[in-house]
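Dig into what follows:

_____
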Amino acid sequence: MARLTDRDRELILADYHTGEFSQRELSKKHNVSVGTISKLTKEEMVQNEHIMNAQVTVLRAEKELPSEQMNAIMNAAQEKLRHTALINDNATLLSKKIKTMAEQIDTPNDLKTLADANDRLAITLKVADRHAPKIDITQQQAIQSTTPTTIQYIEDVQTRD
């Protein structure tokens, strides 16, 4: 059997990442052994199953909905994508500005303002929830004794960047 080319590997992994094929099915589709598929996918995780499912939903909707509705949906999706890109671009700029400012200031009020800005940025980028989980008073007291200060939080963020 001939060695797999880089292109063959890419095609096999692309199919694997959809989450729609078993190793045996990939083996048959690409005319390689199950062992070869197993070696290729050993360290891999399915990554694009959600995208594939979304695409199936869109294709199904195109067949079921009138063209006016599909056009409206596609236009709204494009607009949402444009807004999301703008928010992410601004968030990147804000993140850089927060880092720069955190290195230059050391007054508690200014640091608190930066921490709040960073928190809002995390919410915007959906890396933090908008609402904290509800906890009772006894848990809150236990947490307060181990909760880092705003200054510790800013220093931790700086060391990660």
The radius of gyration is 24 Å. The CA atoms of residues 87 and 158 lie 22 Å apart.
